[in-house]
Amino acid sequence: MITNGDLASFGPNAPGYVWKSTADVEPIEVSRGITVQLLWQGDNGGKAAVTTIEPGAIWVGEDLHDPGPEEVYVVSGVFNDGVNDYAAGTFLHAPAGSWHVPQSTEGCVLFLFYPEG
User: Fold this and answer.
1) What tens digit of pLDDT does each residue of 37-69 get?
2) Are 109 and 77 in contact (CB under 8 A)?
3) Model confidence over 68-82: pLDDT tens digits?
4) Is the dihedral of CA 93, 95, 100, 103 positive or negative?
5) CA 74-95-114 angle, 5° bins
6) Which parts of the sequence belong to the ChrR-like cupin domain (predicted)?
């Protein structure tokens, strides 16, 4: 059981507990019409980010997942990986070593997680 004395060590006050609003993170353009806002980066290189793809934008080249996998959640719009369309609410797991060509005809917002960087 957690007591009042333990509250500083658990929950939102625990060491390492991090929160960040996209309003506080400047978008970085990584390809024409595609921006990334890095929300978190762990000691092992893991990262969490929000990516916005403007209507008609296409990633230049292949987006290779290295050294680890990429987890994608389509927050809004329709994401296309170069082959298939994925509507808002879709989750994708791209294993290490796989690749795609991120793009969107209508624009989209994605939440990305890279457990291994």
Assistant:
1) 999 999 989 999 999 999 999 999 888 999 999
2) yes
3) 999 999 999 999 999
4) positive
5) 60
6) 21-113
Tokens describing residue 22:
């996209």
Closest CA to 103 of 66, 69, 52: 52
Cβ neighbours of 101 (radius 10 Å): 14
Helices and strands (H, E) in the chain, number of each type: 0, 9
Cα separations (Å) of 109 from 10, 12, 77? 32, 27, 7
Token pair recorded at residue 20: 């960040």
Contact residues for 27 (Cβ-Cβ < 8 A; gap 6+): 35, 36, 37, 52
Tell how far CA 77 is from the center of its chain: 15
